[in-house]
Amino acid sequence: MMNSEILAGLDFFERDKGIKREVLLEAINNAVLAAARKAVGPAKDLRVDIDPKSGEMKVYAKLIVVEKVENKHDEIKLDLAKKFKNDVQLGEELEVPVTPRDFGRIAAQTAKQAMMQRIRQAEKEMIYDEFKDRAGEIVSGTVRRFERLDVVVDLGKFEAVMPNKERVQTEDYNVGDRIRAYVVAVQNGARGPEIIISRSHPNFVRRLFETEVSEIADRTVEIKGIAREAGHRTKIAVWSANDKVDPVGACVGMRGARVKNIVRELNNEKVDIIRWSSDTKEFVLEALKPAKVKSVTLDESKKNILIKVDEDQLSLAIGKRGQNARLTSRLTGWDINIEQDKSVIEDFNERVGKAAKTLADALGIDQAVAVSLVKGGLSTLETLTEVEPQDIADTVGIPLEKATEIQTAAKRASGSLASTQ
């Protein structure tokens, strides 16, 4: 008899694991048959019969009916054969039970081993069959254990592995945590199928948007590109062929509800939703927001873009550790170089230089002193005549006596200027 533990195992694995009873019985039959061959001997044709309900196992052999047995493994004596079939004839092939006396214990152990081995094989087959077409989907599971830096996640019937390179380095995972992840691949390797999942893959964000934003799911809004530094920031470019649909607004949702759900799933990773444009210049300006750009210069041959911004916008445009510029470059496919726009400074210096030269010529003073006066707000003859000599001395950093001389010269020049008018 097959023991009750194995019978219970057949029921459990069929009910809970979805492995058909017939598949397991076939594996058990083959294993028990091999055990029977060892126990019975080299019989030509052995068969094992297993009752799927009771678990009773019987071994049968096909023997040739003879007058005198010369090979006990292949032949049976006529008078003994008649106990199984009354009208049996000499030379007839007869199937008779040959179950060894102590075979039950050996068979039960063999059956158990065969069943467990077949279950492991069946589970691997089921993993591959169920998941081979699910690469690119999001799955949910529970963190079960860690293998070095890899995270093993329980998906219910199966396990998945999140390799260290697919983890988000700013996230902590603990045994028992419920997590969602993107199925990167289902590999059928030497050790069987392996489900590889990721939380750092850019397509994880893509799938979250497809789930959360109905306009993306029905293709009213199209995701044109994603650039991501997992755990820190993601830029996603969206577009709609329908002029009446605001692609950015659709992704943000009412009061930001849709993007908030995505950001929550990403553990507060920043998500920039950008309006895609076929015009590279316009697209880059959108991608760099909220930074205000002064000028954009495109080099089509090198796919290089030079961006110029005011000094107060420089750190915003480049981003923390260059992140904003780097993600914009990945999203647009162009090399981005961001510089401070110095044209305003150059214009200012040019105006200062002209005003200083006018003063230097009128007062007969050194150009450097004249520049200091202009930068200090004392840029006209009239202003120099109205202030105290000490103010001039403090502004330029010169002795009071020298400052008095400058003011006197300013009054003289101002007077001569007035007399000529």
Automatic annotation (TrEMBL):
Localization, UniProt: Cytoplasm
Domain spans labelled S1 motif: 136-200
Domain of life where this protein originates: Bacteria
Entry keyword Aminoacyl-tRNA synthetase: no
Alphabetized Gene3D superfamilies for the sequence: 3.30.300.20, 5' to 3' exonuclease, C-terminal subdomain, Nucleic acid-binding proteins, NusA, N-terminal domain
Chief location: cytoplasm
Keyword terms of this UniProt record: Cytoplasm, RNA-binding, Transcription, Transcription antitermination, Transcription regulation, Transcription termination
Listed InterPro entries: DNA_repair_Rad51/TF_NusA_a-hlx, KH_dom, KH_dom-like_a/b, KH_NusA_2nd, KH_sf_prok-type, NA-bd_OB-fold, NusA_N_sf, S1_domain
Entry GO CC: cytosol
PROSITE patterns, A to Z: KH_TYPE_1, S1
Stored NCBIfam families: NusA (TIGR01953)
Family: Belongs to the NusA family.
Entry function: Participates in both transcription termination and antitermination.
Protein name as annotated: Transcription termination/antitermination protein NusA
Species of the source: Chthoniobacter flavus Ellin428
